[in-house]
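Chain A, query sequence.
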Amino acid sequence: MTDQPTEPAPESRAEVADPTRRQFFRQFAGDVITSAAQVMGAVTELRDRSAHEASVLLGETAADAPPVEGAVDGTPTGFRTPFRFESDTVLLVIDQRRLPEVLIELPVRGAADAASMIRLMVVRGAPAIGQVAAIGLALSAGIVARSTPHTRRAILEGAANALRNARPTAVNLAWAVDRLMDRYHAMGDLSPDGAAIAQALFEEAMAIVAEATDDHGRLAEAGLAILPAPADGERPLQILTHCNTGPLACGQFGTALGVVQAAYLAERPLHVWVDETRPYLQGARLTAWELQQAGVPHTLIPDMAAGPLMARGEVDVILVGADRVAANGDTANKLGTYTLAVLAARHGIPFVVCAPLSSVDLATPDGAAIPIEDRSADEVTVIRGQRIAPEGTAVRNPSFDVTPAELISAIVTEEGVLRAPYEPALRAAMDRRDARRAPAQPAGVAG
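Chain A, predicted structure.
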């Protein structure tokens, strides 16, 4: 009998792949969880070496490229942020509508492109939306750098409004745009130095990316510290998550999935229940793909299976993200989150929101004041090009729901774990963040 190489069993196959994945994630975590000054350098390096990084993590990325090396049945592999710079004037964003079948990148050359990509959900996830919007607006400032001051002002104001309206629920979007426009106004709306304005807005956009990198790493560490131990002490921690909160949605380490990654890197035994997240299937298409690349044990479930799993004692904690957190702690997130919170309360399961403070909107008093985006009927009646409902069927498709603060066990932020009452806790956390980011004053200078 001739000796032939044997096909590894599924468990062995995962074990063989794990060291490479683990090495990548340890390096990534080390780069993320660092000081703000180091992060700024890291972002500059990201910009300058993005093509190299993409080739390391993804292989070929062009739309007409063959499947990347290591892909199974043409499925793209690699685990990375949703955008990279092709040049100083072009940002490439992954078309998240096409995952997991194919990895395609589309160009963003200015604010109009960014607004379109956000509205069409090419790029999605509140933190990533804010970062792409900021970069798009900065690129537009570069395009109009030689325009007259009045023309420049009209173009930038119009671009900012278009971006703000692209997706109204995610507060990171307006927050990032307003931050760049505040920088612009501080330099003078009618300043003749268009090049200086463009440079300042680009620096502000890079600062937003840098701060998010640092914030998400801090958030992951804080979330790891409060993860419960399984009741029996023997089985892995059973985590349930909804929608997609990994690097694709957040631009860097991730929020709720960032906590999962941190736990996995800490070699905590865990397993993730992944809600499919109807109707857009962010869980099935994106979260499952990201966890697969990371080597994290997970199981995809229909959304309505979450309740029975809780009733059977198979869920230890629920980790979700947030697109907006109101001043009182009410939280808007992907449709279906409120249902999970109610079920968690029924079964005594911790329900934890993982959100950077950039997603907190103290100007919105409570959830009733959060605008909820209604999206196209086709997202409900058509799945991957196949119609599943009769033509003319009436559809209501709210993209988000609101979870009342009283159903939330904790809000994990870069400034630590917050507990009710949330309004003073959120305000204090934002004060700590601002103090941490404030430039150090020379000795002897009064504040």
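The chain has two domains: 18-215, 217-437. Residues 1-37, 47-74, 441-447 have pLDDT under 50 and may be disordered.
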